[in-house]
Specification:
With 166 residues, the protein is mainly beta. It has two domains: 54 residues; 65 residues, SH3 type barrels. 11% of the residues lie in helices and 43% in strands. The chain contains one helix and 14 strands; from the N terminus they run H-E-E-E-E-E-E-E-E-E-E-E-E-E-E. Strands 3-2-7-6-5 form a five-stranded antiparallel β-sheet, with no helix packed on it. The longest helix is centred in the first third of the chain and has 18 residues. About 8% of the residues have low confidence.
């Protein structure tokens, strides 16, 4: 019963959004950056230590806690000062960001490889179940093809595209 009410209310909200019944408001809120001067942060990955000129001087292990003494841009990269003349790239303190989805292209059944004119390339074919890269779509003689290499194409009907959500 509660689930039906939630679904009903969600549907009403989406309907009102699509009709433009709700007004939009702009909020100028800055994203909360965890790297601020004076904070103590944990290294989330192995980091290289640089000097103020951007030259490598050592390495640090992940898992150690360091006090942020300042933030400086060196050679176009943002660095965090952790000691006297010791700087680490800002990304070493940030958590890893994984892609939410992965796209996999597999061959559904054995397929010929075609050239840019739509003619099969002799001696070239792709076996069933093979993963292929999708370098783009093209139409040859009004038929859809997927580019898998330089001047190498496969009919789009022979490729199964799967999207995997993590």
């Amino acid at each position: 019963m509660i689930n039906k009410k939630i679904i009903y209310m969600t549907g009403l909200a989406f309907a009102s959004l699509s009709l433009g019944a709700m007004t939009t408001q702009t909020v100028n809120a800055a994203a909360a950056n965890p790297i601020q001067q004076g904070k103590r942060l944990n290294l989330t990955r192995r980091a290289t230590v640089f000097n103020r000129n951007g030259e490598k001087i050592g390495h640090l292990r992940r898992g150690r806690v360091y006090k942020i003494r300042g933030i400086k841009v060196i050679n176009g990269n943002t660095f965090v000062r952790i000691g006297k003349n010791k700087f680490v790239k800002e990304g070493a303190f940030l958590p890893y960001v994984k892609s939410a989805m992965k796209i996999v292209n597999r061959i559904k059944h054995p397929s010929y490889v075609y050239d840019k004119n739509g003619q099969p390339i002799s001696g070239k074919f792709v076996k069933q179940g093979t993963k292929v890269k999708n370098l783009g779509h093209i139409e040859i003689d009004e038929r859809p093809y997927i580019q898998i290499g330089e001047n190498e194409y496969i009919k789009a009907n022979n490729v199964l595209t799967t999207i995997i959500n993590y």
